[in-house]
Amino acid sequence: MSQTTIDPRSLRTPPRRPLRLSWSDERVRAIVWQILVVGIIGAIVWWLWSNTVHNLEVRRIATGFGFLSREAGLPIAENLIPYSPTDTYFRALLIGLLNTLKVAVVGIVLATIFGTLIGIARLSKNWLLSKIAGVYIEVIRDLPLLLQLLFWYAILQGLPGPRQALHPVDGVFLSNRGLKLPWIEWQDAHSYALLAFALGALFTWFYRRDAIAKRIIDGRPRPVWPMALGCMLVLPVAIWAAAGAPWTVDWPELRGFNFRGGLNMSPEYFALLLGLTTYTAGFIAEIVRAGILAVPHGQWEAAQALGLRPGQVLKQVVLPQALRVIIPPMTSQYLNITKNSSLAVAIGYQDIVSIANTTLNQTGQAIEGIAIIMLVYLSISLSISLFMNWYNARIALVER
Amino acid sequence: MPQFGPSFMRTMGAAALGLALALPGVARAQAPAANANTFDAVRARGQLVCGVNTGLAGFAQPDSQGVWRGFDVDYCRAVSAAIFGDPNKVRYVPTTAQVRFTALQSGEVDVLSRNTTWTLSRDTALGLDFAATNFFDGQGFMVKSALGVKSAKELEGATICVQPGTTTEQNLSDWARANRIRFTPVVIERLEEIVSAFVAGRCDAYTTDVSGLAATRSAQPKPDDYLILPEVISKEPLAIGVRQGDARFADVVRWTHFLLLSAEEFGITQANVDQMANDPRPEVQRILGKNGELGKMLGLDNLWAVNVIKAVGNYSEVFDRSLKPIGIQRGPNALWTGGGLQYSPPFR
Amino acid sequence: MSDITLNASAKVAEAVPRSAPISQVGFVGWLRTNLFSGWLSTAVTLALGYLIIRWAIGFVDWAIINAVWSVPNNQTQACRDLRGTGACWAVVTEKHRFILFGTYPYEEHWRPALCIALFVGLYIVSAMRRFWRKELALIWVGVLTLIGVLMWGGVLGMPYVPQERWGGLVITLILATFGLALAFPLAVLVALGRRSKLPAIKALCVIYVELIRGVPLISLLFMASVMFPLFLPEGMNIDKLLRAQIAIILFAGAYLAEVVRGGLQSLSRGQYEAADALGLSYWQKTGFIILPQALRLVIPPLVNTFIGFFKDTSLVLIIGIFDLLTAGKTAIIEPAWQGFGIEVYLTVGAIYFIFCFAMSKYSQSLEAELNRHRRH
User: Fold this and answer.
1) Which single residue of A240, B290, C217, C340 has CA 20 to 30 Å from C145?
2) pLDDT at A5
């Protein structure tokens, strides 16, 4: 964004004229226009609203959110918090929301990593690598995401059944029932350790900020890593050990029809994650490439001339400048991943849209169901926007 | 350089207006109101609008030429033949499970011939009436024979494929709870997706109406690899829906169904309908309009029955044309005389 | 810098002979600089080359050598016997007309085919800068009207075809093109409104844009399919294709508005001030000075947004409208053809790709062309 210097003279407002009730007065016209537009739109909304109310009455369709406390009766395959079909619609929708967040958050992280790698590959001096990255970007971006999801899902279903599961390493099984990994049996000690880690990370962050501030004053470097090690590794491990060091690994094994135990990643989740990641990575790669190219070559050379090591050049000089170009379009890609995760409904991953859709089918309350979907996505979009705006403001060029 | 002339805004405005006008007839504003007389509206329009499935083998699916075919489609054709004497005055509107009731309520379709289960809550709370049960069905399970499962009770811990938003899903939950069976659902809305998921082995069992299971099974290259389990866990009377409070139109639909049943009962077929007019049995004569004014009582042509049977044949012909090839047996859909549930009140 | 010393002294004579400098030109030189410039680069090249060749051989085997191209009378046994070692293109041979035209009456397929040709022609004409003038808007109106007449018929001896029977590629093109054409005027108004000084109008535009951009298209399509009928007065009813089209227009309008707003913002203040200084009214200023310049700037992002809509129209699958993707999926419901999804997806994907790739290449070249004068 170009920052134009504003001539102070242009900020002087002309002397206010008294308001005359005449069409030639600009302010009168402005008010009339606004009343007109708002009136028309208000009338349309009112008309639609009254039609809706009338139709709901005539067709005897129930209204209100009372159904949320009724028993849902719908089975859900993947749930982060306990759920059974006897629970309420509210809880079912909550599970759906958590499933949406699960795929969106993981998708954002993976797409960022994968997209950055491809963006760098696109800039590689190796012709073959750069061409392949280019073809990938072009093909992925020119096919509908829905088609890609269906395609991935069809491929994943082609994997062997659970009894013939691929078994590369002990405890890891890959079949058309998904990916099974061993996982520790979760106990309270683990939760405490995790909590200690989070607090430690927060403390380290404050400590680092403080250390940098002090270094600016007296110029003495203060190493952060001993503190980080202590807070983020030693302390959690100590707490875990103090709680008795529980360590039982939950190995997946084939029992009956399916694998029991361990950590499971279903094909639906996997296909959705794969589709979202590869699709969005194609867009992120272009953003990253543009961001890196936007840093003038002179900046690299100047940094090297100052005697900075390659890592320092990247971290201290290039990245801060590239990020400024990258962050705003990246935000909209993150929003896209979140919104595109709604395509889950086509391949049977039970996200918020899928569950709200089933709910509105069963209760017949379309307005409430769609309102819930929209509200959820609006809140998520708003949160991501706010966070990214905050981050963008933090890294923005500070101008005098 | 592009040349946007000075009258650019005006042209843009004209273009927008022109485009808006270029969409005439898209909005059909004169569809029958929720409680108005569908029968007269259909007559006046000269066309029956029939809501069908978006694609279900045997019941409703477009063929390679894009012509709709199937059991439910033949019912649309039969009603059209009854009203207009011509089975082709039908417009088919494919409806998903989600929008089917809305489509009927709002007047987008006149009749819903789309494998819809007749339940009390649908009959009362959704503003529609069920005219006739044209297919008796029930929910069952299908597994791969190689799995070695012989009964649904053995499905403890299995992964089960089920379509969401239908009665099937809730029946499954109820059944599992009643039998204390834990299962992992795979919930996919589109039929072809869920079938391919099951065939690929994504789930151990697939549950839907038994007719659907049979259709899916027969469609497989080796049907013997699949087994339909003996348990039927629900009643699924698939019925034709019309708007509530529209008794006259409902009568026409209902008696068209009964006509197909009676025709089978009396041996009237597509081929012999003209000769049957000379049949001495009084009920046959009444049905075919030789005697009495039954057609007029329905507000139809007195030869309506001849038209319907010429168009689609009797119930067994309709059944055999669409459902027999995909391996569905008559079972409960045999006539009452053959030990089934299909029973027509007398034409009198 | 240079290792080569021209003055041959006695000491140098003892030096071992050197190999010739690495060639920087010619094919070998190109290979050296671009593929084998170091051990890492060489390793990457070899690994990738191996994978690509392996994959390409496998694909050719599957798609061409072992493939079945047609079977008589829906007898798909030949295809089934392949057991995945070859493609069954017979499904495409048999169903291609269904995939392209859906349930449109078979004898009348020339009409949607002509419409597809008209759409492509319209895109090509719009892409040529020679035609970037006000008449282009009239061409659009004319062609879109013609397409409407062709599809519906009912005149000139063409039988009437209701839009429930339309389907396939033409639906995709209709949804995307009419979506763009009708969303564009809306988008211009909203973009102007969002930059307006009138608080009420600005607020309305901001709410509209942010509301639509904050929710997924699916939720709007759901709304169109299950909620629109409730919005209308009793007895009034609009077709579901039109309902989906309205949802796409509302959706496209919000995104296009942001694109147009970008163009408005990139104009220098001087343009606004100069127009004010000339005493032009708001609409004169906008129509004569601002929009002609701003819209020219946004054509490349506009094409990119259009590519997005073109792909997004595939979501109507979820509400059961027969677009290209839905037609492709419906084609494999018939029992004889079940299980040949990959072939159909590849075909459908290829059609989408051709359209999107052409448009994205065009947009890239246009961007380069429009930016050329800025470089100097």
Assistant:
1) C217
2) 63
CA distance A146 to chain B (A): 13
What radius of gyration do chain C's Cα atoms show?
Answer: 29
What is the distance between the alpha carbons of residues B189 and B201, in angstroms, rounded to a whole number? 17
Residues C41 and C131 reside in one and the same domain: no
Residue with tokens 């005149």: C155
Is B134:B159 a contact under the CB 8 Å cutoff? no
Mean pLDDT of A10-27: 68
Q: How confident is the model at residue A11 (pLDDT cuts 50, 70, 90)?
A: low
Residue with the bigger pLDDT between A215 and B345: it is: B345
Share of chain B above pLDDT 90, in %: 30
* pLDDT reported for residue B9: 44
Domains and CATH numbers, chain A: 89-158+267-395 (1.10.3720.10)
Structure tokens at A396: 């923005």
> Chain A contacts of B36, Cβ < 8 Å?
none
Which candidate, C215, C216, C225, places its Cα nearest to that of C246? Answer: C225
Distances B223 to B27, B149, B326, C335, C343 between C-alpha atoms, Å: 46, 16, 11, 12, 23
In a domain, C3, yes or no: no
Residues of A in contact with B158 (CB under 8 A): 256-258
Contact list, A268 vs chain B (CB under 8 Å): 186
Q: What is the largest CA-CA distance in chain A?
A: 86
**pLDDT at residue C108 greater than cutoff 90:** no
What is the DSSP track for C263-291? HHHHS-HHHHHHHHHTT--HHHIIIIIIH
Q: Are residues B206 and B276 in the same domain?
A: no
C-alpha dist (Å) from residue B291 to B262, B287, B299, C35: 16, 8, 16, 92
The β-bridge partners of B93 are B51
**What is the extent of the structural domain holding C46?**
18-65
Q: Using the 3D structure, point to which of B202, B219, B236 is the last residue of a domain.
A: B236
Mutate: best of B145, B186, B244, partner A, most A CBs <10 A: B186
Taking Cα atoms as reference points, which of B133, B127, B132 lies closest to residue B245?
Answer: B127
- Answer with the residue of higher pLDDT: A135 or B167: A135
Q: Is residue B248 part of a domain?
A: yes
Of C103, C318, C332, the CB nearest to B192: C332
| Residue A110: pLDDT over 90 | yes
Of C45, C65, C85, the one marking the end of a domain is C65
- B105 and B51 together in one domain: yes
Of C103, C137, C332, the CB nearest to B12: C137
State the total domains in chain B.
2
In a domain, C5, yes or no: no
Interchain contact, B107 vs C235, CB within 8 Å:
yes
- B149 & B277 share domain: no
> How many angstroms away from the CA of A182 is the closest CA of chain B?
19
| Contact status, residue B262 vs residue B323, Cβ threshold 8 Å | no
| Closest of B88, B89, B92 to residue B72, by C-alpha | B92
Question: pLDDT tens across B143-172, in order?
Answer: 999 888 888 888 888 889 998 877 788 889
User: Of A285 and C336, which is predicted with more confidence?
Assistant: A285
**Chain A contact for C342 (CB, 8 A cutoff):** yes
- Domains: count for chain C: 2
Q: Using the predicted structure, report yes or no on whether residue B233 has a pLDDT greater than 70.
A: yes
- ipTM of the complex as predicted: 0.82
Is the pLDDT confidence value at A276 over 70? yes
- The whole domain housing B300 covers 38-137+238-329
In degrees and rounded to multiples of 5, residue B264 shows phi and psi of -65, -40
For residue C39, what pLDDT band results from cuts at 50, 70 and 90? confident
Confidence of residue C101 (pLDDT cuts 50, 70, 90): confident
Q: Do B128 and B151 share a structural domain?
A: no
In the block, residue with structure tokens 């051989």: C57
Reply yes or no on whether the pLDDT at B25 is more than 60: no
